[in-house]
């Protein structure tokens, strides 16, 4: 019997599509263009991060000033390996009139808090040409984060001077990382929680670098850059139908290959290698429920379409910690989040279909990579 779908009350409705920002030029110029165009959102995201750290002082024992001091330790590693993306930080700071140190702290927040902010509960899944009605490669991602940042979501279409054009989602002052480029490479990221984190290149910088890849091996290699501070699960898709989940920590990794046309990942490690270093796996029960639920729903269909993937993104089993996340009432500031946007990427046709906010009650809007 089919589940009866009941709209969740108090869900924010967006009557317009997420803003699209078109940028080009050097990395610093692109950052400045983003900062100028989304100045209010950049400032708002920094204010939210500041408030979150202060609210969680009892757990983190960290002030905002202390967070900035910690973040500076990561900067030299990013500067040495990826100075172009540090330049994007500088541009965002200049364009938004926000201090550079605060932009760095925002982008290094996961590292600075040593993953105490177990807020990111994203769900990613994909199918290749073997499992779609039209032979396209499709990827889907629900971005879960604090609801205060939902208004800061926007889409970036970028044409860097020396890197491939890309189309990606981001919010506030964070570097773009969930999206795809003109070479037919798409990336979805999910936070994971290893116990070997260290001072190094912040994982958002690592993820940003993947969007500049021209080959699959290059994309995988960028996730494994030396001196990384920690890692995400990087779900990497190629227009050829190749699909990988690259599970990464500071010192270890495992590559999972989507050999049967389906791939799913949430916020816990799947490989035995990475399970051995997972921090507090008993805290990741909702991640496992979302993983099994998405995996089951995905495999019920061998002729997926954009709409069928969108249907999975709207699922409310295990509400409020469901695939479509509505856990906004948590008392603990470290345990409250919601789906702030959901997207389906058609890697074959270079399109992104994105719902701003919870996809159960917000419409999807289509963006094309004009490369």
Question: Nutshell version of this structure?
Answer:
With 371 residues, the chain is α+β, with helices and mostly antiparallel strands.
Provide a descriptive summary of the structure in words.
The relative contact order is 0.17. 32% of the residues lie in helices and 23% in strands. It has an eight-stranded mixed sheet with strand order 1-4-5-6-7-8-9-10. The chain has a six-stranded antiparallel sheet with strand order 11-2-3-12-13-14, with helices on one face. It has 371 residues and is an alpha+beta fold. Strand 6 (178-181) and strand 7 (185-191) form a beta hairpin. It has a domain at 118-368: Penicillin V Acylase, Chain A, CATH 3.60.60. It contains 13 helices and 14 strands. The chain is globular and about 50 Å long. The mean pLDDT is 94.
Outline the secondary-structure elements:
Blueprint: E1 20-25, H1 27-37, H2 39-55, H3 57-60, H4 64-72, H5 75-81, H6 83-96, H7 100-107, H8 109-112, E2 123-127, E3 138-145, E4 153-160, E5 166-171, E6 178-181, E7 185-191, H9 203-210, H10 216-223, E8 232-238, E9 243-248, E10 253-257, E11 262-265, H11 272-275, H12 285-299, H13 306-313, E12 338-346, E13 351-356, E14 364-368
Parallel strand pairs: 1-4
Antiparallel strand pairs: 2-3, 2-11, 3-12, 4-5, 5-6, 6-7, 7-8, 8-9, 9-10, 12-13, 13-14
Descriptive labels:
alpha+beta, 13 helices, single chain, Penicillin V Acylase, Chain A, eight-stranded mixed sheet, six-stranded antiparallel sheet, 14 strands, 32% helix, 371 residues, globular
């Amino acid at each position: 019997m089919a589940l009866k779908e009941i709209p969740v009350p108090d869900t924010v409705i967006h009557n317009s599509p997420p803003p699209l920002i078109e940028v080009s030029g050097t990395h610093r110029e692109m950052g400045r263009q983003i900062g100028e165009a989304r100045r209010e959102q950049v400032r708002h995201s920094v204010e939210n991060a500041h408030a979150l750290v202060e609210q969680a002082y009892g757990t983190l024992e960290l002030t905002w000033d202390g967070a900035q001091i910690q973040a500076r330790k990561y900067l030299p590693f990013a500067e040495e390996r990826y100075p172009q993306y540090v330049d994007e930080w500088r541009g965002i700071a200049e364009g938004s009139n926000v201090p550079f140190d605060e932009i760095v702290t925002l982008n290094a927040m996961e590292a600075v808090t040593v993953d105490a902010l177990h807020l990111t509960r994203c769900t990613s899944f994909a199918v290749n040409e073997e499992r779609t009605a039209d032979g396209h490669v499709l990827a889907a991602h629900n971005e879960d984060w604090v609801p205060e940042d939902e208004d800061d979501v926007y889409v970036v279409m970028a044409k860097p001077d020396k890197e491939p054009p890309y189309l990606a989602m981001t919010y506030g002052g964070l570097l773009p990382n969930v999206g795809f480029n003109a070479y037919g490479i798409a990336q979805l990221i999910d936070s994971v929680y290893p116990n070997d984190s260290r001072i190094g290149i912040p994982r958002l910088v690592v993820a940003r670098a993947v969007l500049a890849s021209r080959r699959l091996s290059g994309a995988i290699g960028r996730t494994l850059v030396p001196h990384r501070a920690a890692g995400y699960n990087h779900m990497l898709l190629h227009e050829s139908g190749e699909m990988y989940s690259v599970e990464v920590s500071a010192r270890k990794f495992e590559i999972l290959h989507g050999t049967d046309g389906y791939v799913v990942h949430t916020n816990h490690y799947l490989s035995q290698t990475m399970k051995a270093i997972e921090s507090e796996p008993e805290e990741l029960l909702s991640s496992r429920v979302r993983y099994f639920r998405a995996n089951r729903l995905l495999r019920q269909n061998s002729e997926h379409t954009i709409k069928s993937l969108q249907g999975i993104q709207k699922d409310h089993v295990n509400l409020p910690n469901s695939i479509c996340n509505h856990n906004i009432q948590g008392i603990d500031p470290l345990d409250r989040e919601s789906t702030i946007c959901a997207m389906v990427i058609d890697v074959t046709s270079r399109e992104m279909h994105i719902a701003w906010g919870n996809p159960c009650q917000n419409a999807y809007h289509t963006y094309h990579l004009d490369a």
